[in-house]
Amino acid sequence: MTFRAEHLLGIEHLSPADITTLLDLADQYAEHNRQGRAHRDVLEGLTQINMFFENSTRTQASFEIAGKRLGADVMNMAMQASSVKKGETLIDTALTLNAMRPDLLVVRHPHSGAVDLLAQKVNCAVLNAGDGRHEHPTQALLDALTIRRHHDRLHRLSIAICGDIAHSRVARSNILLLGKMENRVRLVGPPTLMPSGVQDFGVEVFHDMKEGLKDVDVVMMLRLQKERMDGGFIPSEREYFHRYGLDAEKLACAKDDAIVMHPGPMNRGVEIDGTIADDINRSVIQEQVEMGVAVRMAAMDLLARNLRARRGAKAAGVMV
């Protein structure tokens, strides 16, 4: 096993071998889940705390299901009603939790870097469930697994990431992961929704949707992050859909076997036509949700193995 990380804070510090190891294990869990096979002993005796400072449906439910399928004791903290609302700092929250001796800490936070800060203050494995505009590593990993299962590989593919690139941590993590695995990445969207310095990302940039989708293997749509916008980034939702929403006419520019992805939640009729989203021959959006559980199972499994190894070495007086 090549995966040696203490935490899963982002894609940036993972090697291609790390990514492959995690995806191989997740692939096994995906098949086991479909067969209804349980793995209650993998995280037996370990405590998993989910701390979501931002609302989430898919990610939080996915982490909870993943932990329970592996046998962890799972606790969801209602951060909206926590001491943070009373003025407690993030570091004090971390120290309080650390005193409870958790083993796995899953955190989503609206500020970039907050999860990394928490990881420096606790004695457990931390998983980043999304921090500000920074990263969302497990989303990129589940996207990668979905792509690999459909195209039988995760290298030398042409992948278009379309929409609100500037505000998307999903886009950032996918750009990093897909680049590490030697894929050709295109960013497609209006200039107002492209991040500054995009020319340094090692990607191709297109402002015309049909041109950007020409002969791609994967079309990855993104949600308009309205909650992170503080100005007029698009003229109107109707105009946005006309130019950048995925419909049959634009999708026809991609390869005939190109798959359509979206991290959810979708704004139908804004980012993607409902007919395309529900097309069982092209859309893999529901499979992304399914693969999310498998990827999070694999991530927690690998981190728990490393955690137990470090604790065992420490108890034996071995330097790690």
From TrEMBL:
Residues the entry annotates as binding L-aspartate: 86, 169, 223
GO biological process terms, semicolon-separated: 'de novo' pyrimidine nucleobase biosynthetic process; 'de novo' UMP biosynthetic process; amino acid metabolic process
Residue ranges constituting the Aspartate/ornithine carbamoyltransferase Asp/Orn-binding domain according to the UniProt record: 157-302
InterPro entries: Asp/Orn_carbamoyltranf_P-bd (IPR006132), Asp/Orn_carbamoylTrfase (IPR006130), Asp/Orn_carbamoylTrfase_sf (IPR036901), Asp_carbamoyltransf (IPR002082), Asp_carbamoyltransf_Asp/Orn-bd (IPR006131)
Annotated carbamoyl phosphate binding sites: 58-59, 108, 136, 139, 264-265
UniProt enzyme class: transferase
Reactions this protein catalyses: carbamoyl phosphate + L-aspartate = N-carbamoyl-L-aspartate + phosphate + H(+)
GO cellular component: cytosol
Annotated keywords: Pyrimidine biosynthesis, Transferase
Aspartate/ornithine carbamoyltransferase carbamoyl-P binding domain residues: 7-148
Matches recorded under PROSITE patterns: CARBAMOYLTRANSFERASE (PS00097)
Pathway where it operates: Pyrimidine metabolism; UMP biosynthesis via de novo pathway; (S)-dihydroorotate from bicarbonate: step 2/3
Pfam families according to UniProt: OTCace, OTCace_N
Functional summary from the UniProt entry: Reversibly catalyzes the transfer of the carbamoyl group from carbamoyl phosphate (CP) to the N(epsilon) atom of ornithine (ORN) to produce L-citrulline. Catalyzes the condensation of carbamoyl phosphate and aspartate to form carbamoyl aspartate and inorganic phosphate, the committed step in the de novo pyrimidine nucleotide biosynthesis pathway.
NCBIfam families, A to Z: asp_carb_tr, PRK00856.1
Name this polypeptide is given: Aspartate carbamoyltransferase
